[in-house]
Amino acid sequence: MGAEKLDEIFDFAIEREKEAVVFYQTLQSMVRFSEKKQLLQKFEAMERGHIAILERIRRDDIKKIDVPDVENLHISDYIITISPSEDMSYQDILILAMKKEEAAYRLYTDLSSKNPEPNVKKVFQKLASEEAKHKLSFEEMYDSEVLNQD
After folding, report:
1. Domain count across the chain
2. Is the pTM of this model over 0.90?
3. Is 74 left (phi over 0), alpha (psi -120 to 50) or beta?
4. Which residues neighbour 96 within 8 Å (Cβ) at sequence distance 6 or greater?
5. Which end of the chain has fewer CB atoms within 10 angstroms, the N or the C?
6. What distance in Å separates the CA atoms of residue 82 and residue 122, rounded to the nearest whole number?
7. Residue 137 pLDDT > 70, yes or no?
């Protein structure tokens, strides 16, 4: 596979992450309470971290990419997607974040499974793994702070 095709893939992935940054910025402008804004700023920073990871992978040798297995709590599998609103609760924000990461994970997993080129497959697997890590983080928050409230 040529460098041009790989660059297109990285450009595509980086654009998706930039869209996620804008998504969390938009949510920040919608919520009323500073603690919710701070949470969304943290999520925005995570997406910016994805962009940095993509840029690092682009510079490094693809063969050196590590694709770890990531646990999946499957919490988001059983939650209905909600729409953003001004009066979102902490729970709503976590649901939106889980669903966003879940969709990104599925996208990269599908792209990986449909691409026969080993280097491209590995890049998409790495991207899916990164999204899975963030989804797991949100699921753990949801589990400990919403589901297991005493």
Report:
1. 1
2. no
3. left
4. 27, 81, 82, 84, 88
5. C
6. 32
7. yes
